[in-house]
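Thread: quick sanity check before group meeting

JM: Hey all, I'm pulling together slides for Thursday and realized we never actually wrote out the predicted structure for the chain we discussed last week. Dropping the sequence here so it's in one place. If anyone has concerns about the input, flag it before I start.
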Amino acid sequence: MSEMEQPNRNRKLFIVVFIAFVALFAYISYDMSSRTTAPWNKPKQLKRALPGATPDADSLKLDSLLKDVEK
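JM (edit): ok, ran it. Output follows.
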């Protein structure tokens, strides 16, 4: 009777380990995606990190921060 239970037990163990691995991988993927910024949102990243550090819009298309340094 133990010969019949062994493959069934191994299969259940495999399924549990597989589900745990997929859940861990999904959690890590979600965590990484929530901490990174998409390439099209990179200009907004500094604005969110340090509000007020950069001007909202530069109508002259000049780097106003660089001008302050050169003065």
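AS: nice. The first helix runs from residue 2 to 35. Residues 2-51 form one domain.
JM: adding both to the slides.
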